[in-house]
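Appendix B, example 12.
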Amino acid sequence: MSTQTSLTGNGDQLKTLVVVFLRGGADGLNMVAPTHDDGYYRARPRIAIKAADATKLDGSFGFNPLLKDLAAPYHDGSMLVVHAAGSEDSTRSHFEAQDLMERAGDVAGGWLGRYLRFRGATTTGALSAIAVSRALPESLRGAPAATVMRSLEDFTLGKGGGPLQNSLEKLYAKETDALGTSARDTIEALRRIEQLRNATYAPAHGANYERDDFSQGLKQIARLIKARVGLEAVSLDIGGWDSHITQSAIMDPQMRKLNAGLSAFYRDLGKTMQHVTVVVLTEFGRRLGENSAFGTDHGRGSVMFVMGGGVKGGRVLSKWPGLTQDVLEGPGDLPVTINYRDVLAPVLQRHHPQVDLAKVFPDYELKPQAVYG
C-alpha cells in the first residue's frame, strides 16, 4: 500500500468548496477581454489585450495570455467564466467592498460561515473549514469550526507536542459536552495532519506547484482533499490587484500566480475534481477607460471563475451590456449584470442540497444562474 493510499479515507469523499478572493479589485476586462467589443479598444488604446494575443474562448471573449493555462479546464468543460459579475453595492472602497461581499450584505458573520452552519449536515469536523491565511477571513466568521493555517507545518502543538497531545487525549476522553467533542476532533485532526506531514507528497499527473504562497496553499489543500479529512470549505487569497499605475506591472505577476496555481491544482486532483468546486471572485472591477498612468481606477463589474465537478463549463456566462456610454455606470464603469450570490447559490446547493439559502444570503432575492448542466 502506498503512503498516500494509507492516509486516505476516514469516511466518504466530501464535496469541497475552495473560494479564492482576488483582493484589490481585479480588472476583469483585461483578464477576460471582450475582444468583440470595439468600445473596449477605444477606451484602452494602450493597455487593452489585443484580440490576436488573447486565448480565444467563445468568439466574443478571450483569456489574457498570462491566463492561457486555464484554457485547459475551460475547454474540458470544467470551467465557467462569469463576466460583468459583482456586488450590487456601488462602493469603491476596498475595505468596505470586501467586507460587504464576504458578509454577503449588512449582516453579522460571513456567508461561508453561515453556509457551514445551515448546510443541513449534522456533524462538523475539526478540519471542515480552513483558511490558508494568517487570520480568519470575514467570510468564515460564524462557522461552527474553522482552522487558520499557512501550511501543514503550522498545524501543530509545537515542541513537546506528542506528550501534550497524549495528556489532552486523556483529559478529554470521557467528556461528553461540546467542549470535549471539539477537543477530541482537534486532537484527531492533529494526528492526521502529523501523518500527512511525515509523508512525502508527489503531485499527480505531472502537476507542478510554483513556490509562491498561493500555489503552495493549493498544494496543501490538494493533500487534505485526497486524505479525506472532512474538508468542506477553504478560503485563500491573492492580494495586490489594485492597478492604478502601470497596470501590467501590478497585474501580470498576480495573473501568473493565479494561472499557475489553478492549473496545477486542476491537474493534480484529476478525477477528484468531480468532488471539488473552485470559485474565484473579487470585490469590484476597474473603470473601462485607462488613466494617464497606464492604469485603471476603481470600477464595478468584473469576472468570476467557477471550476469543478458538474460545472457546465466551456462558456462565458454573461448578460453583457455593451460598453457604450449610455450603459456605463457612474464615471464610466462596466455595470454588474450578474450578482455574485446568484453564482454562489447553485454551487452551495449542489454541495449540500438541504442548505438553507435564505439564511446564508438573508435579505436578498436569489436569481440562481445556470452554473451546472
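Confidence is low (pLDDT under 50) at residues 1-11. The chain has one domain: 3-151+205-360.
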